[in-house]
Amino acid sequence: xxxxxxxxxxxxxxxxxxxxxxxxxxxxxxxxxxxxxxxxxxxxxxxxxxxxxxxxxxxxxxxxxxxxxxxxxxxxxxxxxxxxxxxxxxxxxxxxxxxxxxxxxxxxxxxxxxxxxxxxxxxxxxxxxxxxxxxxxxxxxxxxxxxxxxxxxxxxxxxxxxxxxxxxxxxxxxxxxxxxxxxxxxxxxxxxxxxxxxxxxxxxxxxxxxxxxxxxxxxxxxxxxxxxxxxxxxxxxxxxxxxxxxxxxxxxx
Length: 253
Ligand SMILES: O=C[C@H](O)COP(=O)(O)O
Description:
Blueprint: E1 6-10, H1 17-28, H2 31-36, E2 38-42, H3 48-58, E3 61-64, H4 81-85, E4 89-94, H5 97-102, H6 107-119, E5 123-128, H7 132-136, H8 140-151, E6 163-167, H9 181-198, E7 208-211, H10 219-223, E8 230-233, H11 240-249
InterPro entries: Aldolase_TIM, TIM_sf, TrioseP_Isoase_bac/euk, Triosephosphate_isomerase, Triosephosphate_isomerase_AS
Pfam families: TIM
Protein name: Triosephosphate isomerase
């Protein structure tokens, strides 16, 4: 690990007030853990007010699953960064493969959003990853190199302190298939090298997360890899015990 471990829960379109309460209370009992591992929860936006009320007692940070690159105006259904920040959001996911595949988010959108997130003072969690077909055709690094170059173009010099990159192989998301620790480390090392070229200052400080069917029984072997600083967790972040076990696996030895 290069930095403080970071584990982010992406609840996607799942959860409830009840889950916010249960998760906040379970994490609130784990202060020794949350002092060592930065834990972030990205619930559906409607649950942010409830999460924001409990986040500091629970020792966690609030995240959003997406945000508009626009500051305001005629954008029906969208949420600006300032609206999200009113509810304590300090991390924002951008370029998740589900947004790219199902909601038409382009590399240009990802770049504009990343820039806006950092300008607002939040941390952008830029998601990259290849499809099964791209991996089979040995295009993994070419695809990820392009996604990174597009997303991180034209960022301010101090961007490293407000940036996280999450490697999520599309074929591993929600499928039960996980990249092996070696496969994940290989791509993370590639991302690390690319970041040094794209971000001039402090690129080593950028946390690199792995996401894609991380569970309590495979988290430790993934997080043991040199360039894996934590995880972006979907399904397993909806059950407090499982999520806490994953966060515990990220704790420094
Ligand atoms: O954002 C989280 C990822 O898409 C991983 O989801 P998963 O853990 O359910 O595979």
